[in-house]
Request: fold
Amino acid sequence: MEKYIINGGKELFGEVTISGAKNAAASILPGTLLVDGIIRISNVPDIHDVQLTLRILEALGAACRYIHRSVVEIDCRKLKSHEVPVQLGVQMRASHFFLGAMLARSGEAGSPLPGGCDFGTRPIDQHLKGFEAMGASVSVQNDCVRIRVPEGKKLHGADIRFDLVTVGATMNLMLAAVLAEGVTVLRNAAKEPHVADLAGFLNAMGADVSGAGTDTVTIRGVKALHGGEYSLIPDQIEAGTYMAAAAAAGGSVKICNVIPPHLSCITAVLKKMNVQVTEGSDFVQVTGDGRLKGTDIETAPYPGFPTDMQPQIGALLCLADGTSSIHEAVWADRFRYLEELKRMGASSEAEGQHALIHGKPGLHGAEMTACDLRAGAAMIIASLATQGKSEIRNIQLIERGYQDITGKLSGLGADIHCERQ
Ligand code: EPU
Reply:
């Protein structure tokens, strides 16, 4: 059992460097299955989800080799399987990206239904509907998905309109379409920076993808992809998490290796809360005195306010003046962290996808349990801003998505360490 121990109430100062984007790695690493050659990917975050993805690639027969902590070389030319091992696939949501990539590569793929953070049902019907439109047959049995192109047929382009905006299905269908015959058009597509990053990777290897980052993505199938090099974009949500930490604890933190336009929605909310944010070409500087003003937020697909920052800003609102409201429009059940923050004395009421938060100037240290990745980040943020000792358990959920969070926060002057029992 491991836990983080935080002695809060210390202002944060200095610089922190943001790692590569978890959710870009989630689709780009499986995307290496499409490449006939060696690929070198840099700015790869050193997080549990990436290690799991590489283990799945290796189980399929890929050779993966670290050149440096953040640079991985992958060779998928000799595969031995098209089935994601159940014991690995169930541990993460993004295992479903192996379906699109393996289907394109081998004409068949199998994977357990994806795991990952639990905030309500997480269907993949839009992914499967897309694969079927491209000519694949789909079956779901005993919590495993199997897709295959019927004997003598090939995966073909299709015009697919998603019933709702889904990041995962947009990227999975991009992977499936890259080597298909003809043109695939994805309508009502997600516009997140990592969707554009996946297109950047595929195009760098010889694919023909246009429109990524808008709501219509067009993929013209090509015969093969070649090896090459690619660097992942910085993690928008890791950056936002350090912005929220600096705002909560007070002080002044320069957050480096970011793309400031990706953060503009987070910056706008922090400014409304009385936090000073200045932007450089590849950094943001966040300065606060810990006195926060409440505000109302509503999550939405990019370029709206990201659901993956909702818990971290929720933690700030627990410390802010006045009553604030949150409407969580993406996930059905993403307020469980508020119950944990009540152990610190926070006051809130959540019903369905709506929450009201009654801010208080001071909370007290408490023992909490992370219920998912961003929920754990919210508990860290509230603890950093609060005098006294807090303990956070279930930290393996936090380490799924944050590289060296204790080291990075300690570097800013926080008193946080990991206790292993
Ligand atoms: N949805 C469906 N059917 C589908 C797919 C999605 O109904 O076939 C619904 C979902 O239930 C949800 C909404 O559509 O209500 C959006 O889901 P989306 O597909 O966009 O989410 P995802 O691809 O499963 C990724 C991130 C999440 C992030 C969401 C939204 C990865 C591995 N995960 O999930 O990240 O919350 O997009 O931006 O990329 C996190 O990093 O903490 C995290 C949970």
Notes: The CA atoms of residues 1 and 27 lie 31 Å apart. The chain has a mean pLDDT of 96.
